[in-house]
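Morning, I've got a small favour to ask if you have a moment. It would help a lot if you went through both lines with me. I owe you a coffee for this, so here goes:
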Amino acid sequence: MTDASSAPRWPGSVALVLASSTGGVGQHIRSVVRGLTAAGVSVLVCGPAATQDQFDFTGVGARFAPVEIPASPTPADARAVAALRRALAATRVDVVHAHGLRAGLVAVLARPAAPLVVTWHNAVLSGGLRGRLSRLAERIVARSARVALGASGDLVERAAALGAADARLAPVAAPTLPAPRRRRAAVRAEFGLAANRPLILSVGRLHPQKRYDILVDVAARWRNRTPAPPLVLIAGSGPAYLQLAARISAARAPVTLLGHRTDVADLLAGADLAVVTSDWEARQLFAQEALRAGVPLVATAVGGLPDLVGDGAVLVPAGDVDAIDAAVRDLLDDDSRRADLAHRGAARAATWPTEADTVAALAALYAELAPEPSTGNR
């Protein structure tokens, strides 16, 4: 890992642009803002007002300009482009760094004078007209950005294949969770769990990509498991809530939807196992949090997850109910294997770049693109 203290001190100004976010991208940008401002960088965040309300970028040193970029393309995108142009005209910046395809497209259309960096956080999975439009946007963004950063190797390959002149890997470090405030017994007591009943945890946005429908279907098989069926907790909010709630009820699955939670560290302290069932992920934040916390992880072998977890988790094919079922049962039935996996997961996590490493790498990139930053941007 890079020693963050050796990063160049770049006294310039950067605009970080994001679209609507309730999870990983917003958390990542808040982490980056905190590190950059501490290193003397002037940071302007441009994004929907709701992201400022949730992530409080100004509270960690940034200035904020509202630019309403929704998660999906709409006719209002023209207003977002105009708003971003105004924000960039009002405050001179040395580098513009957009996060995600939606923010990247708006930034490209705004035609900033400063070099444009775009981080690809997600793959395009949708089909139909929306998928075709998204893939067109991918091509435009890839060919227009000075540097395309991919949160995982497959995203770097995708950007390069679409014509990016300079595509690089930029692993996104999960912000460090605070220490748990509650002991394991207290967390389990919240859910009325007997001592012998396993607790399985998954955390993420309730979105079809996460395939929580698969997790519900698998959990329904455990309803009559002896000596006690595991309880599955899913923490997160999102558009799939009603469909998942109906599926849980119909299957009588031992699954509880917790909604948005701010005590993930506590939930991990009470968990016996963590599960990720996504169709695709780059470096999913919850997978990082689980391994750092020493919680055994079962995850789908998609996107950047195999490179992320190595031998520190059990990997299964995406969408395979039988494989997920077997992997979870095997671990729940073998205390020593769970302990070994927890140890290997924590060891793997110790090799990952830290938040400081991520900030150092970005500061070095900005210094490369704007080696003589302007002085009138404070």
Notes: The chain is about 45% helix and 15% strand.
